[in-house]
Amino acid sequence: MAERLLEVKDLNVKFATEDGIVQAVDGISFDLERGKVLGIVGESGSGKSVTAMTLMGLTRGINARFDGEVLYKGTDLLQVSDRDMQNYRGNELGIIFQDPMTSLNPVYRIGEQIAEAIQAHENVGKRAARARTIELLRQVGIPNPESRVDDFPHQFSGGMRQRAMIAMALSCNPSILIADEPTTALDVTIQAQIVELVSRLKDDFDSAVIFITHDLGVIADIADEIIVMYAGRVVERGSKRDVFYDPQMPYTWGLLGSIPRLDRPRPERLHTIEGSPPSLINPPEGCKFRPRCPHAFDRCMQEPGLENRVETPGHLDRCWLDVDYKREHRDETISGGSTEAA
Amino acid sequence: MTVLDQARESGEVPLLEARHVKKYFPIRKGVLQREVGRVHAVDDVSFAVREGETLGLVGESGCGKSTLGRTLVRLLEPTDGEIIFQGKPIQSLGVRRLRPLRREMQMVFQDPYASLNPRKRVGTIVSDPMRIHDLGNRAEQKRRVGEILETVGLSPEHYNRFPHEFSGGQRQRIGIARALALRPKLIIADEPVSALDVSIQSQMLNLLEDLQNEFQLTYIFIAHDLGVVRHVSDRIAVMYLGKIVELSPAEELYTRPIMPYTEALLSAVPIPDPDLAEKRERIVLEGDVPSPINPPSGCRFHPRCRYATDVCKQVEPPLVDYGNGHLAACHHPLNVDEATLRRVEVAERHSPAEADDSALPQDSSGSSDPAFSSTHDTHSR
To answer: Does B30 lie at the interface with A, CB-CB under 8 angstroms?
Structure first.
């Protein structure tokens, strides 16, 4: 069995705001082993980015409250002091953000920014740091790294900037790479390149990846295990095959059905999830998805626990509906009435 | 005889026609602001949009699709070429003569956060176009705003609210309401759903479809998401570096792409199905889109094309009509059989309007789906 790098237990993140307390992450738990890719899917406001940033210790602040445990190789990162956290950040956990245009400093050269990250963590000279930077840029597929290392961010295209961000995140050999929507701002062709790059680097650096996205298509390519988040909660969790071929949560069906897909005949109308995501200050009673769920019934006024309800162990969901009923009815949602499977 | 005359004879005038439209942005340098180069954002683009159809415009960022959209409604001045709206050339009309035409064409923008004035109330945002065009009195305008808000799925009570009180999806609805206020014929939607979550995105696509049926709208739908474009479009134009490289009935583009660039784009679209995703062959395009300041010689796609040969470097391929209103510009067309290849000639490349009659989406059963299977065998050189 592979080494377990990260164990998140019942993580809660709350922010105090003027309007009230925002329960951004509500009791999420997962494990991550070396060599695996965990996909976190959800819409804006579902808490996926807050989860990622909490792992990195980036959500700390006077208005934030944390509960639960984030065990990295046995150490609870939530208890680590701000100063010690800096040793984990970069060395142990690296992060790539969504927008490569704004996450690089426009007035410093690309190479300087990456070398700075290396020198901040390791006692190496300028020259050595620069050599390593060039090597990293080569590994992430920047052509001519010897000369491009002295370019400014504006001289890089969007895809190249994202590659530079990845190089920076990997500069100190972290065991876990967190990718927070790394492909969302990019064109499909570049997106495909970046996804391939991340999964290749995961093997080269022998690390684990947490891949956050709202695009189920990207997840289908890269993830081993998938977590579906809704309103700060995990509503479904399972292996990639479980979630795509035996989804148990009506919200997951809705997500699958809302995408105009190239692998299916064009439906007359797209399936929609009516309404919009709930407020995290006053979440609905019972199941958080109840107000938007076409299958909701009395029992949904009580919130179902995240439990295993199907034959496959490890496939968890939060839904009261009968499994057979769900298997019978979910295709209406997922494939918009057309029964033709691809 | 011009294309337009032909179209008149056949009794149909395209709602909007672009002929050799070019938009170059000058690059100026030095104290004298001397022009040192030009960005060829839109470079000799011709196509026609028929009334009631949806024309999808796809391409990577920087291919000129947004610039083209803006040039068509004269938000940008074309450098050269003709834009013909309802049979009248509009490329050189002055502001005053253009204004009545602005009622007929409206835009919906990508970013629902940046495209609404944060200091104006929803009612003002939606009624402003009516006020500017002097339609009805205050009371009528207000009543009409209420109606439109309801049509787009908001409630008339939202009249006095500010944009920040709405979610992204609702704001996009306000943007659509504003575009509808003048009952336009043509709406140019520039990436209207790309900033939205998937569940909201599907609501918006269905709404746009309903509005099209209700008000007989014509759309030019600009997007980079090939799945979305396929869902909404009747015909699709693929742009690369300022040129239209393929123009085809929607379904046919996905089942039978002719241009290798289209093939590569399709193969890069992620499929939410792990088994299929593993099986299918992916054509990874190396590198980025080249600079539109010095576009490559010959076929602009040749540096990234896996079929490229010497001829591609030297000769720019013309748009060729492969029948059924399917046009493509390539020296090595894919998915074309010998017979067609012998039959086709260079279409009068300026006038895709001609091809329009046959361009209705047709059943393309029997052909393999290139997005999932290898296309090498069907591809003939």
So the answer is: no
